[in-house]
């Protein structure tokens, strides 16, 4: 029985895909696989038996990727599965920052007992007047699954859109409207744009990328939107910029103790991916990836191990090995098989950074003895009998 632990609630449409060979456990310490959304995993003890973690979502900064890789635990995410949900909220953010919709709604709530509210609305409304986004310049930093959708949608709403992503993938470039002005540096976005929206992962290089220095390069009265992660923005610097009026509004899906208390901040409680559709898409993708890994050893959309697809095993046995990407690993593996007089029918070896993964299809069913011999090789992190 394969034991699955959910650290966050995962949509039923995904969980229902698990066959009778899988059982849910409340105890992570006995899990073969973990499903997670935003729960922080950095301080959790990772059980020896754990084989895979699937993040039903995009951002993986809540998971200790390297520690997992070092223990032979493959971490998956679900690229693009919640991108439309975030895009729609980011467009809402553009509008919320441009028209005082929140102020206006609050005014109605405060005056709901007023019998003359219908008449008084017409007097009060001038306080909540705003501006339109059509014709304004939007800068999109990070043209991945979400950034591309935001750029294209804003373009269709009549904005002049600039995009920057030094590492843009070919697929995302194909999906980007030809109207988007592709700039090579964020500085061009800072200089030109009335609205700036950030859609990059939180990494050492992107942490605090919005700070006093970068804000100083922006237009006076710029609107900044952050639907990615709070730490992309230095909140003390943002506080100063909001006070001085350099930044007119900061829209964030990641309020923290500081930004939640700042004037000029429009804070949303991390709702980007909280839609029925995104939750379903993420759950289905995460569960399918876990099942393919557990049942066939295949890796799709991992963030710490290479992609590897050996299909369904058609020979008598299959062994999967998570190992370090160092010299002589393959020759040591093949000599274990040849020492046992076992023919290798098929093999795949892939690497990603410091880690590698190999699948061997062999002409006898795999044995514990083989596993032990392979596991004793220096640099091997996990060995698994698939068949
Ligand atoms: N508010 C919410 O509920 C959600 C937030 N997110 C956040 O949004 C982020 C982006 O999500 P996706 O678009 O799905 O990921 P993605 O991986 O498809 O796109 C990220 C893009 O950022 C680019 N990038 C990386 N470093 C960069 C840099 N220094 N400058 C410019 N571009 C850079 C990459 O090349 C990639 O194209 C996630 O990492 C996550 O933190 C994602 C989903 C939901
Ligand atoms: O996918 C992401 O990166 C998100 O931020 C969504 O987080 P959630 O699954 O809503 O906790």
TrEMBL record:
It comes from the Bacteria. Coiled coil: none annotated. Residues 318-387 form the ACT domain. Transmembrane segments: none annotated. Keywords: NAD, Oxidoreductase. It catalyses: (2R)-3-phosphoglycerate + NAD(+) = 3-phosphooxypyruvate + NADH + H(+); (R)-2-hydroxyglutarate + NAD(+) = 2-oxoglutarate + NADH + H(+). Its EC number is 1.1.1.399, 1.1.1.95. GO terms for molecular function: NAD binding; phosphoglycerate dehydrogenase activity. Pathway: Amino-acid biosynthesis; L-serine biosynthesis; L-serine from 3-phospho-D-glycerate: step 1/3. Catalyzes the reversible oxidation of 3-phospho-D-glycerate to 3-phosphonooxypyruvate, the first step of the phosphorylated L-serine biosynthesis pathway. Also catalyzes the reversible oxidation of 2-hydroxyglutarate to 2-oxoglutarate. PANTHER family: FORMATE DEHYDROGENASE 1, HYDROXYPYRUVATE REDUCTASE. Belongs to the D-isomer specific 2-hydroxyacid dehydrogenase family. This is D-3-phosphoglycerate dehydrogenase. It comes from Mobilisporobacter senegalensis.
